[in-house]
Design goal:
The structure is a single chain. The protein folds into two domains: 217 residues, UDP-n-acetylglucosamine1-carboxyvinyl-transferase, Chain; 213 residues, Enolpyruvate transferase domain (UDP-n-acetylglucosamine1-carboxyvinyl-transferase, Chain, Alpha-beta prism), CATH 3.65.10. Helices cover 29% and strands 24% of the residues. It contains 14 helices and 23 strands. The longest helix has 14 residues. It binds uridine-diphosphate-N-acetylglucosamine and phosphoenolpyruvate. Phosphoenolpyruvate binds next to α12.
Length: 441
C-alpha cells in the first residue's frame, strides 16, 4: 500500500500553480450529460475522483476524448441507460461523492436515473434529502431501495416549481439546477448554495443555452428550455488547494508564491488566514507568502478568543477548517475551531496531539488549539490519513515536524490533490512515496 515518507523541518521555497478545482470539475463534467453536442472542458485536474467520474461517463456511453493533458472533449450522444443495472455501475458510481450529480442531468434529459449510495469522505452523516426533495418538487418520483442501496428517480416530464431547499447543499443545488434547466416553465430555487463553483456551473449552462438568473445569490430563477447545446469551459483554480498551500507556507516558515489564484473568487478565505496571523501579499493575481518565523492569531475586537467556524458560502468552507487547525498548532495564541457541518471531521487531532500539538477536542464539532508559537516543534510519527483534508493537514504537520513521518492511506489525499509529492519536492520538500503497510496497534 502506498504511503508518504516525509523528513520534515525544512523550509520550502518557490512557486506553485494550483490545480483546477476538484469540486467544480465534478459538477461541470456531470453537466455534459445535458446535451448531445460536444462540450470541451479545460484545466481538469488529474486526480482520482475526477478520473473516476470521467470513466463512469465513458461507461454510460459518453464519447470522451483526452485532447491535451488537462483538456477533455465530451459528447453525450448515445447514452446506454441499461448500464444503470450493471454491477460495474454499482461499484463505480458508489465510489465517489460527485457521481450523485449525474442524476439531475439524466433525469432532465431521459426522464429517469439511478445511482448507488455515493461515496466520498467518511466525515459524518452525508444526507441527500436536498437532492431528492428538489427533484420531487419538479415532479419526479423517488424511491430508495435499502436492500440494493440504490436511489431511483423518474418523471415523464419535469415541470418548473418554487423550491425552497431544506439546506444550502452544494451538490444538491447543482443537481436541482441541472434538472430544472430542461424542465417546462419557471423554477425558482431559494436557499441555493452560491459558491463560485455553482456560479461557474450556471455560467456554463447559460453558454449552453440555459436561462438562469440570480447567479451568485441564493435565489436562482431558471426558465426551462427545450434543448441545450455544446460549449467550452475552463475550471477555476482549486480554492482548497490554495488555502492548503497558504497553510503549508506558514507552518513550514516558507516563502511561497501561489500563482494565478483568481483572488476575487476566494471570498473570505484569505481573510481567515490573515486572522491566523499569516502575512499574504497579492502580486498581480498571485498570492505571495513571505517566510515568517512567527505568526500570531488575532482575537475578536473585544479581546476574546477567536473562533473560526464553517458556513455555507460566502462563509468559510468546511474543507479548509482542518488546514486552519493545523496552522494554529504553531501560531502564537489560541483559537476555537468549530466544524458545524460535519460530525467526524475533527477526530484526526489525535494524531496532531501525538506529534506534540496542544489541542483539546471539546466535542466532535469543536477543538481548542493552544498555539506553540514555534517554541516547540512537532515531532514526526507514523499515522493514517482519515479523509482528504485531514490527510493534507497531517502532511503539512509532517513537513513542519522534526524527524521522519509516515502517512498511510494516501489514496484519500490523492482523491483531490494532483501529484502532490512531485509538486512539493519541486519546492524543496523531502517527501517520497513508499510501499508499506500500517503498523497494527
Ligand atoms: C463533491 C463536493 O462538491 N463536495 C463538497 C460538497 O459536498 P456536499 O454537497 O455533499 O455537501 P452539502 O453542501 O450537501 O452539505 C455538507 C454538510 O453541511 C451540512 N449543511 C449544509 C448546508 C447548510 O446550510 N447547513 C448544513 O448544516 C449538511 O447537512 C452536510 O452535513 O460541499 C461540502 C460543503 O461545502 C464540501 O465539504 C464538500 O467538499
Ligand atoms: C469532503 C470532500 O470531498 P467529497 O465531498 O468528495 O467527499 C472535500 O473535497 O473536502
Amino acid at each position: 500500500m502506498n504511503a508518504f515518507e516525509i523528513n520534515g523541518g525544512k523550509p520550502l521555497r518557490g512557486e506553485i500553480i494550483p490545480q483546477g478545482a476538484k469540486n467544480e470539475a465534478l459538477q461541470v463534467i456531470s453537466a455534459v450529460l445535458l446535451t448531445e453536442e460536444q462540450v470541451i472542458i479545460s484545466n481538469v485536474p488529474d486526480i482520482k475522483d475526477v478520473n473516476k467520474l470521467i470513466e463512469l461517463l465513458g461507461d454510460l456511453g459518453v464519447r470522451v476524448e483526452h485532447l491535451k493533458k488537462d483538456t477533455y472533449s465530451f459528447q453525450a450522444k448515445d447514452i446506454d441507460l441499461d448500464f444503470f443495472m450493471s454491477e460495474q455501475f454499482k461499484a463505480k458510481g458508489g465510489s465517489l461523492r460527485g457521481s450523485i450529480m449525474i442524476v439531475g442531468p439524466l433525469l432532465a434529459r431521459f426522464g429517469k436515473a439511478s445511482i448507488p449510495k455515493p461515496g466520498g469522505d467518511k466525515i459524518g452523516r452525508r444526507r441527500l434529502d436536498t437532492h431528492f426533495l428538489g427533484f420531487e418538487k419538479l415532479g419526479a418520483k423517488f424511491n430508495y431501495n435499502s436492500k440494493t442501496n440504490f436511489f431511483n428517480v423518474d418523471a415523464s416530464h419535469l415541470k418548473g416549481a418554487y423550491i425552497l431547499l431544506d439546506e444550502a447543499s452544494v451538490t444538491g443545488t447543482a443537481n436541482v439546477i441541472m434538472a430544472a434547466v430542461l424542465a417546462k416553465g419557471i423554477t425558482t430555487i431559494y436557499n441555493a448554495a452560491c459558491e463560485p463553483y455553482i456560479q461557474q456551473l450556471c455560467k456554463m449552462l447559460n453558454r449552453m443555452g440555459a436561462k438562469i438568473s440570480g447567479i451568485g445569490s441564493n435565489l436562482l430563477n431558471i426558465e426551462g428550455v427545450e434543448k441545450l447545446g455544446g460549449t467550452e469551459h475552463r475550471l477555476l483554480p482549486d480554492m482548497i488547494e490554495i488555502g492548503s498551500f497558504i497553510g503549508l507556507a506558514a507552518m513550514t516558515g516558507s516563502e511561497i508564491t501561489i500563482k494565478d489564484v483568481h483572488y476575487n473568487e476566494l471570498g473570505i478565505i484569505p481573510d481567515i488566514f490573515k486572522r491566523m496571523g499569516i502575512r499574504l501579499k497579492l502580486r498581480g493575481d498571485d498570492i505571495y507568502i513571505p517566510s515568517q518565523p512567527h505568526y500570531e492569531i488575532d482575537t475578536f475586537i473585544d479581546g476574546s478568543i477567536l473562533t473560526v467556524a464553517d458556513a455555507p458560502w460566502p462563509g468559510f468552507t468546511p474543507d479548509l477548517l482542518s488546514i486552519v487547525l493545523v496552522v494554529a498548532t504553531q501560531a502564537k495564541g489560541n483559537v476555537m475551531i468549530h466544524q458545524k457541518m460535519f460530525e467526524s471531521r475533527l477526530f484526526f487531532v489525535d494524531k496532531l496531539i501525538d506529534m506534540g500539538a496542544q489541542i483539546i477536542l471539546c466535542d466532535p464539532h469543536r477543538a481548542t488549539v493552544m498555539g506553540l508559537d514555534k517554541q516547540v516543534q512537532l515531532r514526526g510519527i507514523e499515522m493514517t490519513s482519515p479523509d482528504i483534508r485531514a490527510g493534507v493537514s497531517l502532511l503539512i504537520a509532517a513537513l513542519s515536524a522534526s524527524g521522519r513521518s509516515i502517512i498511510h492511506n494516501i489514496e484519500q489525499i490523492e482523491r483531490g490533490y494532483q501529484d502532490i509529492d512531485i509538486r512539493l519536492r519541486a519546492l524543496g520538500a523531502d517527501i517520497k512515496r513508499i510501499n508499506t503497510m500500517p503498523k497494527q496497534h
